[in-house]
Amino acid sequence: MALLDPRLIELALDFNKNPDNAIISAYRKLESIVKERTGLNNENGVKLFAKAFQVDDSVLCWENLDSGESKGRASLFTSVYMAYRNNRAHQEPRHNVSDDIREFMLVNQLFVLESEAVIKYA
User: Fold this and answer.
1) Separation CA 35–CA 52 (nearest Å)
2) pTM of whole model > 0.90?
3) Between the CA of residue 7 and those of 48, 55, 79, what are the distances in Å?
4) Rounded to an integer, what distance in angstroms lies between the CA atom of residue 98 and that of residue 73?
5) Domain map of the chain by residue range?
6) By the number of CB atoms within 10 A of the CB, which of 9, 57, 85, 98 ranks highest?
7) How far apart are CA 81 and CA 106, in angstroms?
8) Dihedral angle at the C-alpha atoms of 107, 112, 117, 118, nearest 10 degrees?
9) What share of the chain is helix, strand, coil (3-state, %, to 5)?
10) How many CB atoms lie within 10 A of CB 26?
């Protein structure tokens, strides 16, 4: 549990009962947090994260990083949503607990990165 972002602890406690629900709920929670921080309430998923982190006039950024590292971090959000969340949201759960744990930890890393981001223009 020490590896988890504190905002995911409650979901992690129910992970064994329903991993799919824990993972989907983590994705939803991340979107809600980013919407609240950025005011991008009309955006969802990939578009939300692109506007929040990727575009030149993004709302959030990471301080003291070169542009390549910042772009890489921003790309993680959109890539994870395209590669994992969209598939999970539109198909029946796979029931592979090892894959589910790895995906939950991947979402956890997005939570960590989000928590380190700051408002670009305060």
Assistant:
1) 8
2) yes
3) 20, 26, 22
4) 24
5) 9-119
6) 85
7) 11
8) 120
9) 65, 5, 30
10) 24
